[in-house]
Amino acid sequence: MSYILCDVEGTTTDIQFVHQKLFPFAAQRIEGFFKEHPTQLKLSANALSCSKEDVVLKLKKMIEDDVKDAELKRVQGLIWKEGYSSGKLKGHVYGDVLPAFEHWVASGYRIGIYSSGSIQAQKLIYGHSVAGDLTHFLSDHFDLGVGYKYEASSYQNICLKLQMEASDVLFLSDVEAELDAASSVGMKTVRLFRDGVEETAHRFAEDFQQVQKLLDQESF
Predict the structure, then answer these.
(1) Cα 178 to Cα 171: distance, rounded to the nearest angstrom
(2) Among 194, 150, 188, which Cα is nearest to 174's?
(3) Which of these, 10, 135, 140, 199, is most buried using a 10 Å CB contact count?
(4) Which of 117, 165, 148, 162 is nearest to 12 (CA)?
(5) Number of domains present in the structure of the chain
(6) Do residues 160 and 199 both lie within one domain?
(7) Last residue of a domain, one of 35, 52, 86
(8) Mean of the per-residue pLDDT values for the chain?
(9) Whether residue 219 has pLDDT greater than 80
(10) Among 171, 181, 161, residue whose Cα is nearest residue 211
């Protein structure tokens, strides 16, 4: 095994950061963003097949309902980029992430990220994190372009892009269904329980230090 694939929310990053910080930041900024960038408003109106007047309300409703929509993610990404660049946003990562990334890369592992959030959003979180710029530790980023995270074919697509056997990849996530899909194609899996252990069919860890212990024990 030579590759560690990480989920974002609930794995490297507190899920509350996304839902209580990033989403509200975009929702509050979206109207002003379009006033300052009328070309973007026109692009969104075309993409959403609605009038310019309805764009803001439609996107805000999507944010409220946590809809996985490509145009919403594009606009959110632009707004978040401004926020990160201005210093108003800092990407949350747990305190064990930086030392784990450092150790894994030094030990010869490659690290990748797979999230329903766009690749741009991933790079912003890790590029402007509270632990500094972590992007140089990351070899690859995957989003819904390879498929939905609950579908086995998505993990097959990742292996094809990596040109690796599934058995050479360890997937870390806090979501059982994602791990089920990954293991069904042959990936190794560990479920992260950042807020207390629950029943799971997978190996589990409460933090990346425990993941490292599993790696040290060669239990895969």
Answers:
(1) 9
(2) 194
(3) 10
(4) 117
(5) 2
(6) yes
(7) 86
(8) 96
(9) no
(10) 171
